[in-house]
Amino acid sequence: MDRGNMIEELAQMPGGLNVKRSTIVYKHMRDPALMRYYYGVKMLNLVDKLDISGSSPTDIFIGRFGYPKVFIGPLVPPEFGDTSILGTPEQWRDMSMESIVDMRSKLVRGVHLSNIHDVEKGRIEEQVRDLALAEKPAVADMSFSRKPSIKIALNDEVQPFGPTGEIKQVELYNIKAESKMEALYQDIDAKASTAILELYDKGLQVSKIQQGLSAGLFGIKNQRRFVPTRWSITAVDDTISKDLREEIKQNNPMDVIYAYYNIALDNRWLIFFMPGNWQYESIEAWYPKTIWNENGTDISIYSSYEGYHGRSTYAEIGGCYYAARLAVTEKLKKLGRQGTILILREVHDGYIMPVGVWNVREHVRQTLETEPTVLHGTKEMWDMIAKRLEIPKVNWIANSRILKDLITQRRIIEYVK
Questions:
Q1: 396 three-class SS
Q2: For the sheet containing 279-286, what is the strand order?
Q3: Of residues 97 and 324, which shows the higher confidence score?
Q4: Phi-psi category of 58—alpha, beta or left, where left has phi over 0 and alpha has psi -120 to 50?
Q5: Sequence-distant (≥ 6) Cβ neighbours of residue 217 within 8 angstroms
Q6: pTM of the predicted model as reported, rounded to 2 decimal places
Q7: Does the structure show a pLDDT above 60 at 18?
């Protein structure tokens, strides 16, 4: 929606343009359209000029439409200083949805059309690489060929950002490369998967590794390319969790049932770690008026499963599956065990706008940091489901391979004494 239409639409609301912004947000926060209007108004000052200067949180965005010719570019806010939190979802766990969207909507995305194979060509391509490689926020001056357009990017795979403008010129200053990233960037003989795993083992945050993969920093020299942001996020989650999965398979199975519970962004998480060899299933129940069930009248339930040897097809529930798998394999490694893992996720109507797949990774991590409830059989599992979740157990069973197996094969009772 352009600025004129945005103002016209707002003027037609009760109270017109005199409506206080806080009223729009807090009184009508469960209305996605009004929430978008509110943040659209906040972005008006970002789209009224042909340039922007600020400290980019080393954040970039690589599009996927038109692949292999895609739009690449940095994300820049109109503020200076330590803006690193804007590009670090690992720090957003305890923030409200409004705070996350408010924070991210100030990031202006610059776009430049490039070929995915042109990572070593062109000035803007070089700037994108350097920014993803940077250790700390870098000062950026970016000018546009026309005024940016107001559009809040909302997607359940990637974190939101604000207006978008076609880059005329961009210059970065005060860049210092992250040393671990730079070493893998200079290693032109290492595969991308090798770089991902080495950086993870050295303690680099997953979000930073994802930016590096997206910017084409890793891989054998003549095979490097830009990777669309949403693909790079899942690729990193998948690569690391597969490696952890094979490692934890060498451990003994869980000897009791652990149940973990948490609420975050009106998502209810109930996660079971059960005795047995590696199996993993994630089930999502989306209430009406949520992003994947916006116009529905009934709860929509989706599930994805893998057995001991993994799966050969892309998960039905998308990138969330791999983000959660990373979190649970991390926990199993810490416990020194393997097991059968079941995630039950209720997405209630307070989750009115998607904020990215990081929500799943970080909130599953957070859930698994809580003190677990130790259960002693399937009856206590059913009691826990009834106590913590609204959806009856019969609905979960109908959509779950693992729960059906528990009923027919009674595996847990064989291990729990």
A1: helix
A2: 300-306, 279-286, 340-347, 267-274, 257-264, 373-375
A3: 324
A4: left
A5: 129, 132, 133, 181, 184, 185, 195, 224
A6: 0.89
A7: no
Q: Which of 192, 239, 194, 180 is nearest to 220 (CA)?
A: 192
What distance in Å separates the CA atoms of residue 92 and residue 76, rounded to the nearest whole number?
19
- How far is Cα of residue 219 from the mean position of the Cα atoms in its chain? 23
pLDDT tens digits for range 309-363: 999 999 999 999 999 999 999 999 999 999 999 999 999 988 878 889 999 999 9
CB 89 within 8 A of CB 237: no
Looking at residue 7, what is its pLDDT? Answer: 37
How would you classify the pairing of strands 69-76 and 60-62?
A: antiparallel
Residues 6+ apart with CB under 8 A from 224: 119, 120, 192, 216, 217, 218
3-state helix, strand, coil in the chain (%, to 5): 40, 20, 35
What's the confidence (pLDDT) of residue 36? 62
- Please give the full DSSP string across 271-327, using - where no structure is assigned: EEEESSS-EEEEEEEEPTTSGGGTT-SS-EEEEEEEBTTB-SS--TTTHHHHHHHHH
**How far is it, in rounded angstroms, from Cα 401 to Cα 403?**
6
DSSP codes of every residue in 155-207? -SSS--B--EEEEEEEEEES--B-HHHHHHHH-TTS-HHHHHHHHHHTT--HH
pLDDT in tens, 228-239: 999 999 999 999
Q: Which residues contact 14 (CB under 8 A, 6 or more apart)?
A: none
Q: Which helix (H) or strand (E) holds 250?
A: none
CA distance 103 to 344: 29
Please tell me the predicted confidence (pLDDT) of residue 174: 85
Strand ordering across the sheet containing 164-173: 51-56, 138-144, 164-173, 108-115, 69-76, 60-62
Contact 374, 279 (CB under 8 A): no
**Peptide bond before residue 68 is cis, with ω within 30 degrees of 0:** yes
Return the axis-axis angle of helices 229-248 and 192-201, rounded to nearest 10°: 70
